[in-house]
Specification:
The chain has about 240 residues and is α/β, with parallel strands linked by helices. It contains seven helices and eight strands; from the N terminus they run βαβαβαβαββαβαβα. It has one domain (about 5-230): TIM Barrel, CATH 3.20.20.80. The longest helix has 13 residues, at about 80-95.
């Protein structure tokens, strides 16, 4: 029988800093208070470019025992490998706990296997962890050799049907989320609010998606985030 995991994480692509000096923003403080196991975010802000994982932000989040994963785009294996490796090394040298590789090839064939093998070896050589996001449930099993956690994003309900091989792995190897981002109407016929957020997280845990997070949009924290975080802090079970 698959071991059921109920692990909590946060995706937040907004600013974790409040100023150029790196002072933690209110969002960073809210995330720290929620104490998820993992935070996925951008290492740098966009314009202007500042370290989003500033020393002060890292101190705050690590005091709350939150592992920090830096976002790296791979464009399904089409982004030049040297550029991806250079960005990854930069973040590893700055002390992140892991790398979140986004827009990852689905491994339904082996065309991009060497590309992702190189990236996985690079991160693991630093004793850090890898999360990859294909964004789809139909993914080849070989992908499990190049990641510690597989994210299927909003397609998490279909993992059992489209990738039945997942039953051979513990649930903490799989990650999903529910949000109101553009295009999510392909997966949900309802809006993600507090009630559906809690429901989806418990459902995901129950069907073998060990990591799940519900939000409105990735660049903001919904007003109901603190209540949601408190509710799903309770181990897996049937929510009231």
């Amino acid at each position: 029988m698959m071991q059921i995991t109920s692990a909590r994480y946060v995706i937040y692509y907004g600013w974790l800093i409040a100023d150029a000096a790196g002072t933690p923003s209110s969002a960073a403080a809210t995330i720290a208070a929620a104490c998820p196991e993992v935070l996925i975010g951008f290492y740098y802000t966009f314009e202007p470019k500042y370290p989003n994982f500033s020393r002060q932000v890292c101190d705050l989040l690590r005091t709350a025992q939150i592992a920090l994963f830096a976002y790296v785009d791979t464009n399904y294996g089409n982004r030049p490998l040297a550029a991806v490796e250079a960005e990854t090394r930069d973040y590893l040298e700055k002390g992140v706990d892991g790398i979140f590789f986004d827009r990852v090839y689905n491994f339904l064939d082996d065309r991009q296997t060497p590309y992702y093998q190189r990236l996985y070896a690079l991160v693991r050589s630093r004793q850090k962890s890898v999360i990859v996001n294909t964004g789809v449930a139909q993914t080849g099993e070989a992908i499990m050799q190049v990641t510690d956690i597989l994210m299927v994003e909003h397609d998490w309900r279909m993992l059992r049907q489209l990738s039945p091989w997942h039953k051979r792995y513990p649930s903490d190897r799989f990650m999903g989320n529910s949000s109101n981002e553009v295009g999510t109407d392909l997966y949900f016929d309802y809006c993600i609010d507090y009630e559906t957020a809690v429901r989806d997280t418990y459902e995901a845990w129950a069907i073998g998606i060990g990591w799940h997070y519900s939000t409105d949009h990735y660049t903001t924290l919904p007003t109901w985030f603190p209540d949601y975080a408190r509710r799903v802090h309770i181990p897996i079970g049937i929510p009231p």
